[in-house]
Amino acid sequence: MSLDRAATKPHEALSAILSEDMDAVNALIRARMASEHAPRIPEVTAHLVNAGGKRLRPMLTLAAARICGYDGPYHVHLAATVEFIHTATLLHDDVVDESAQRRGRPTANLLWDNKSSVLVGDYLFSRSFQLMVETGNLRVLDILANASATIAEGEVLQLTAARDLRTDEDVYLKVVRGKTAALFSAATEVGGVIAGADDAQVQALFDYGDALGIAFQIVDDLLDYQGDPKATGKNVGDDFRERKLTLPVIKAVALADGEERAFWQRVIEKGRQEEGDLDHALTLLHRHGALEATRDDALSWAAKAKTAMQTLPESELRTLLIALSDYVVARVN
Amino acid sequence: MSLDRAATKPHEALSAILSEDMDAVNALIRARMASEHAPRIPEVTAHLVNAGGKRLRPMLTLAAARICGYDGPYHVHLAATVEFIHTATLLHDDVVDESAQRRGRPTANLLWDNKSSVLVGDYLFSRSFQLMVETGNLRVLDILANASATIAEGEVLQLTAARDLRTDEDVYLKVVRGKTAALFSAATEVGGVIAGADDAQVQALFDYGDALGIAFQIVDDLLDYQGDPKATGKNVGDDFRERKLTLPVIKAVALADGEERAFWQRVIEKGRQEEGDLDHALTLLHRHGALEATRDDALSWAAKAKTAMQTLPESELRTLLIALSDYVVARVN
């Protein structure tokens, strides 16, 4: 508790405060991802689960439960549940089509074949399902079932919406909730529910996770057009080359004149990209203030997250979750 | 109730008796597979769900609940749950790898790409999850969570076991439970649980579904080596050409001498098949009585199913489920 918080990133400080709980989560994840009979399962999951990542989602669950005063054992089950769902969706995102490979897109499943990615993902989903049933809490099951449906529907929606210029900001939000925010909001909400928090607190936790997830994804989309490759690990224009209709482009398309619209149709819908198209896209984005408007949206979602969290009882964890919402947008602010 | 049962197949007679319940199941399936936002979802599921199939699994749930005297609404939810899980696993089985396509194996997902098969399958899983949560019955959720894990683990196990001559009958049974029997047994078991049946009845329903599913799959494997293509719709030797280690081959491998073992290694493990290999495989299967022994196993599992069902209260539905266990093995008896 005596860490120098000023020099520490919020998720690192969270990880330090929650380290005992996180150890329990990691032990549970290791125990449940094992399979007595199918050695392929730990082979596939090990590089995903051991690599660790930031474990942001399980930390959200643990923090939410603790903020609401929980001292039972099941926040650990729910945190592991959320991480398993996240890992399963990563595996299913790894599935690629021959045509996609042929287009020269980097394939995510170089290590494992499609079939293993699908089936091991299914295994992790079923493991997460067992973990949540163990909590014996029907409301938690209801929340996670609905989140699963939102995630799957958003992922399917993205298949058709990503290259369709009719995709508007409403559809974009549905896709973003599916890709990111639905699991964030379920992660925080179930933490409150398992702690027996009142309805207003549970709603605030949902709102925080939802807004944080949306801010997170919008920042990601924005950095694809204006990030520093060294800091983001992404090349500028990756989304553009993959013909993904993200928020900056949706905003520019909404304000496009006939000629500009024809440009977006050619490069996004038809995929006939030529030398210099990315530069022209950036010109159009700047002309319509699309990057600034996208940045404003991200800041506004981060502010919503902060406002929601401020209604919860004051604590060090609450302070860190508020700091996290600032941190998520700091890269574009 | 006045149908001429003697001239009717058991599953057709079940379908007739349960027609009101099945209408409710079909209406629920149609309502829940819809998606307001993602039109790709009904496009993909329509051909699977409307084509109908025999709807064997949901009928097992309905019949089990009715045999145990249930008159509430939730057997319909559970029947739809079971059908959604079945359809989702079919979609995930559709996912293929480029290498598999190159080997000239017929691809199951000609209509839809891998990504759609995975994500729409996930959507159906999440829909099934919502349906079972609506029953508010934690024991049902526990059974279905465990069945999901058995299914996924069996499917992954099959990836590595199917071409490995060390695969024995124990491993084969695990794979078969994953592919078929775990969903059959969960289908019947949850029907009893939702009806509030006592432990012995629930166990009998589980045993019936488990044994029926195993008999069903063994018959399928056997027909691949000795079926009439006109009746089965399968060519003799499909599994052999796909290098699948099914029960007849496992039995022949267990009794193989050195030369025979080398043959199986070449054709199954290494996949270097030549003209005349299928005939030689059939010779070896006959030499060791492997087809007869496989048939005996199927009959023995069907008998187990029958014995389990006979412990339940007598009724027309019970008679039909007993007839169903005979019918499943009639093709090889």
UniProtKB/TrEMBL annotation, chains A, B:
Transmembrane segments: none annotated. It is an enzyme of class 2 (transferase). GO terms for molecular function: all-trans-octaprenyl-diphosphate synthase activity; metal ion binding. Its cofactor is Mg(2+). GO terms for biological process: isoprenoid biosynthetic process. Gene3D superfamilies: Farnesyl Diphosphate Synthase. It catalyses: 5 isopentenyl diphosphate + (2E,6E)-farnesyl diphosphate = all-trans-octaprenyl diphosphate + 5 diphosphate. PROSITE patterns: POLYPRENYL_SYNTHASE_1, POLYPRENYL_SYNTHASE_2. It comes from the Bacteria. Its EC number is 2.5.1.90. Keywords: Magnesium, Metal-binding, Transferase. Belongs to the FPP/GGPP synthase family. Supplies octaprenyl diphosphate, the precursor for the side chain of the isoprenoid quinones ubiquinone and menaquinone. This is Octaprenyl diphosphate synthase.
